[in-house]
Structure formats: structure tokens, C-alpha cells
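Hi, here's the filled form for the chain we discussed.

Project: internal
Contact: R.S.
Residues: 396
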Amino acid sequence: MRQIHLPVWLSAVAKPHAAAFIALFSLESFSRATLIAVLPLDGLALLGDAQQVSVLYFAVSVFGLASSLSMPAFVRLIRRRWMITLAAACTVASMALFSTQTAWGFILGLALRAFSSVANDVTLNLYLLDHIPRRQLNFFEPRRIFIGGSAYIVGPWLGIFLQGKLGTAAPFVVAAGAAASLLAYFWFLRITESPVVPPMTRPPPPPLRYLRRFAGQPRLVLGYLLVVGRSGWWAMFFVYAPIYLVTAGFDAQTAGLLVSVGMLGMLLVPVWGRLGRRFGLRRLLIVAFTLTGLLTLVLSLVAGLPGFGAAMLIVTPIAGAIIDGAGNVPFLRAVRPLERAEMTSVFATYRDVAQLVPMGIFSVVLKLAQLPAVFAVGGASMLVLAYYCRYLPRRM
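And the returned structure, exactly as it came back:
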């Protein structure tokens, strides 16, 4: 009988190699990206003002942070494959809650979505570390962010377009479909845990113990601070850019379109990754954080002029995308194999801390000042992180 050969691309994504992990991360990114502009505007409509939206995001981030620190116990209790399944179920449930268009449905939906994001992030990164060799991470991360980040070029506009044309539930149905597709593809791959790293035979240590262990490793702490800064800046952009544009007089679809156009810089992430490998991620990150900080400060100064403000919201994310050329490499290169579950669980809190700390600060800022002050604070924080990039290993 003649042997049937799969096409090269199909063979690549049918096994738990780099292409398959990029596909999994991309489906998760698409699910989030479709709602990235919808949710802040829904929150603004349901809660009344930007300051209340900030308070809600702050509270949800506290819940997400607690979920992250509980992940080692969850993973040990129900195993990784079931965490992925639970995450998909929580995502679908959150989409149903968002579709109710009520304040309580919105709040509960955000909480479930925060838990599902943490569960996906921790488990997928653990599988990634099992199957992708360390030396390949510098090549893998820019490609992952490029493919996954491309969802954010279409997502902000698509979500608002679907909501305007097909009804309030339409973007939530699409996001739920992406989560279900991730789950189906994950089970199709039949990914196994690495036999090289032995399974834990005793309960994981209390969260405070592995927090102290994480804090005792300067390279992990620095990688964590940088990714928190990067994610915090994007959280600021995705929440306050649509709110700024709508309050400045643009309609919701235009706001979503402008946010999507601003994300076109994601197409250059592979270029920044190559430059990082050639000249060093340390230099790349110093330049990227500095440029992003300066442009964000300029945005705060011209925000009173809607035309210039909209133009800066297109230009500034291009600089932010340069930071993504490094991805999570500073952490992934530093974590030790026998500590992956605990250290990755601590590291996974970056997304919640990146919501928690900025939203807490911005809640106070918006009590005292107008919306442009948010961009001023965000720009200043990026300049501070540019200084700390000097402590990255020169060989990275």
C-alpha cells in the first residue's frame, strides 16, 4: 500500500513542536484581541466613567493574581490537560455573562476571563518549556509574538464592528469559538509532559515560599519587572486608548479601527527579534523602552488636540512593539528546569500585576487629573524600566 504523506505545514502543526505552540498561543490571543476594545467601552457604558472602569479592572486583577499563585496546587490536583479544559470552559462562560450586558454579568465575566487567562498562560508555558529547547527560545519568542500579536491588528476593529453590525453578543460568540478551537486543537495534539523533568511526589510548597525563592534570583526578578512593564503599558493602551478616542468625539468603530491600525507595528516583531539576536536583547530593550516612554509622554502633551492625539495613538504602539521582539526570553532563559512549575506560576502573575498596579495608580490619577495624565505616568514608567535594562546580561 502506498504511504500517504501529509503536507509539510500540516505535519508541522500536527505535532507538539514550535508551529503547534504558536498556533495554540495565537488562538488564545485571538480570543482576547476580539474583545480588547469592546470590553473597556462596554465597561464605560455600564459603569459611567473611566475611573470606575479602572477600579473594576483593579479588583479583577487582585482576583487574577490570587489565581496565579494558586496554579501550582491546581495543576497538581487536576493535571495540566484538565487545566486547559477548565480554562476553555471558563472562557465560554465569561462570554455568556458578557452577553447579558448587565453590570453584574460584566463583573463576573471579567473575573472568569482573568482566571482562564492565567490557567492558559501557566499551562501552555509549562508545556512550551518541556518541548522547546532553551537555545531555540530566542528564535521562537519573536515568531510567537508576531503570529499571536497579529490578532491584535484585526481584533480591536473586528470586535466593535461585529457588535455594531450583528448585535452585542457577536464578538463574544467569536471569542468563545476561538477558545473552543484552542481546546479541540490541544486535545488533537495529545501533548504530554516532559519525562526529563520528574513529576512532583510531594505537595508544592506554600506560595510565600516559592515567592521568596523567585525573589532570591535577580535574573528572574529583572525578567519579571520588564515583562510587567511591557504588559502594563499595553494594558494602559488597550483600556484607555478606546476610552480617550470615544470621549474625544470619535465613534466606537473609528476608535476600534484606530487601535487596530496602531497595532500594525506587530508585523515588525520578527525584525526586532533578528536585531536583538544580532546586537543583543539588552541593547534592543534599552532603545525600545526609552523610545516608547518618550512617545507616550508626547501623547500626553498633545491629547488635548484630538487629531494629534489620534495620530500619536497610531505611532506610539510601533515603539511598544519593539519591546515584544524580546518576548519573555529574559525569564525563559533564566528559569531552572526543576523549578519550572513554581517559578512559571509566579512569573504568570505578570499579567495580573500589569493590570493591578497600573489600574490602582490610574484610579488615583483619574481622581486628581484628566485622562492625559494616565499617558504621562505610563511614559515615565517606561523610562525608568529603560534604565533597569542596563542590568540584563550582556551576552543575552
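Let me know if anything looks off before we file it.
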